[in-house]
Amino acid sequence: MKAIIKLVICLLSLTSFAQVAPLENHTWYLEKLVINNTDFSVPNGFSNSYFANFTNGADYSLNAPCYPIQGTLSYSQNQTFNINDASSPLDCDGLPQQVTEYDEKIMFSINLSNNPFSYVFSYKSNYIELTITNANGDQAIYRNQQLGISNNDKPEVDLYPNPATSSFQLDINAGSNIKTVRIFSVNGKEVMYFKQPQGSYNVSQLSPGIYFVKIEGEYVKNNIKLIKI
């Protein structure tokens, strides 16, 4: 099931050979799912928690509250592709029911059994929209920039600076009560673990690249993409 979520994201990178560059040059943020002609927007408070990155053609990674994912896929010049494999650690503990239910929609509507997937880009005035359609006609719609966040949709925790060179700090809303901070590589391997809050988190030992910072507390659980330079 977890593999299914990635599938959605992988779709992004499959922009045909001529379109590979746009995929690799941007982070793609999930805006909504369209299932049986019904729109399902990303849950409140998680507007920018679902995003995908593509690095080497058919390699991709997907961040999601429950399933940080990576995998491979095969695509052709007719702007369709198949999902070949995907893997992810399952970790939905402490997340709101609306988030786990949304992830289930992704898993059941965009999964390996729904090959092949087609994809198309739409160039808007200030962003690029990516639409991926599975064999059943369900869609996942992404854009190459973060979604707007309302006052009721602001994250309880954020980190800065990002990109980071040697360390980062957490911007924490009152009452978040952070307990642990863990850092994962794009393939899901834990590379650093802080057992208690720190004024500054030293990441100088990490190699340059993309990581996922998992922040957990009594009233908060966030996954945030970190770029180490």
UniProtKB/TrEMBL annotation:
This protein's UniProt keywords: Signal
Signal peptide extent: 1-18
Residues in Secretion system C-terminal sorting domain copies: 159-221
InterPro entries: Secre_tail (IPR026444)
A family per Pfam: Por_Secre_tail
Signal listed as a keyword: yes
Domain of life: Bacteria
Official protein name in the record: T9SS type A sorting domain-containing protein
Organism: Mesonia sediminis
